[in-house]
Amino acid sequence: MSKSTFNVAVIGAGAIGLNHIESFQKHPAAKVVALAEVSPERGREAADKFNVPELVTDYKLLLAREDIDVVSIALPNYLHAPVGLEALRAGKNVMIDKPIATNAADAADLVAESIKQGTLLMVGQNQRMTPQVQTAKQLITRGDLGEVYHAKTTLMRRSGIPRIGSWFTQTKFAGGGSVYDIGVHALDRALFLMGEFEAASVSGQTFAKFGPRGLGDGSWGKGEVDPSKPFDVDDLAIALIKLKSGRTVLLEASWAGFLEDTDATQVFGTEAGLRINPLQILHNTEAGFKIEPIELLPPLVDPNRMGHFIDVLLGKAEAFVKPSESLALQRILDAIYESSNTGKEVRLD
């Protein structure tokens, strides 16, 4: 685009919406000019905190404004696709927080519409944006690990359910539980490092052992809580993903359990291994096998996903999160649930 500044409208003033506003405001070429939030109280609190000049309860009013260039969607998962599609059809560049949708069909519609409109669509996969992951990607790309053939990726919380009784713990609003909330981060990080997103097959199993008993509650989010609402999502999931190349990824995601909090990805290569959180290389040296820290390399792109989004619009960077990757990731998420429900491996075309 030939513009030097971009007007941003954020839809949703929950916990992630506040992060969207703050992150955009860190970029000098982004101006958050409007906020849409159905709760007037929550909206006013956010608008005042970040000095957002306009607050509305109906997001459609913002889509109709020609002066708004970017729409950033920070809503419950089930609204990502329909609101995102409306924004794209209105000619807006769209940032959607993960997951892109609650099913692959809706995700495909978003990707197709962004191509049709010629606008930027990006999913906020912030885990791949971190300096650690960007450094790891550079080491893998230059061949430090040799042939990469497997990855294990884990995001496990002992007590991290995002407020039992909120939209996060209801399938009709969230689409899924730990898989959609944090598993998507761990999986995206691993697939990005592997450099491959297309899966040949998926075997998965989900569990709900703590949330239904009212255990494992966390503090994330600002959504309303209704104790009478059912907990009908997963609080732990595992999956084995076989990629089309024949390589594999093992995923573990947990909201609750008798376990230690873990946020890590390990990549297996023929010449060395690599681990994130902490960032280390596992290899043989003249002194024998060693596990050593890795010094950070200059990042490939701005680690702030919103700042990177603006850099792409400015022509300063190529999109670090491509819609095709987010669509392929959503297909894997769908397959994890299908495999768990059927007890069978799911083959993907």
Structure notes:
The structure is a single chain. The chain is of the alpha/beta class. Helices cover 32% and strands 25% of the residues. It has ten helices and 15 strands. It has helices at 15-25, 40-50, 60-63, 80-89, 104-117, 131-141, 171-174, 178-194, 305-313, 323-342; strands spanning 6-11, 30-36, 54-56, 70-73, 93-97, 121-124, 148-156, 199-207, 236-243, 248-254, 262-269, 273-276, 280-285, 288-293, 346-347. A nine-stranded mixed sheet has the order 14-13-12-11-7-10-9-8-15, covered by helices on one side. Helix 4 (80-89) runs parallel beside helix 5 and helix 6 packs parallel to helix 8 (178-194). It is globular and about 60 Å long.
- The rounded distance between the terminal residues' Cα atoms is 36 Å
Radius of gyration equals 20 Å
Give start-end ranges of low-pLDDT stretches.
none
The largest beta-sheet arranges its strands as 14-13-12-11-7-10-9-8-15
Please outline the major beta sheet: 9 strands, mixed
Helical content, roughly? Answer: 25-40%
The general outline is globular
Order of helices and strands: EHEHEHEHEHEHEHHEEEEEEEHHE
Overall mean pLDDT score? 96
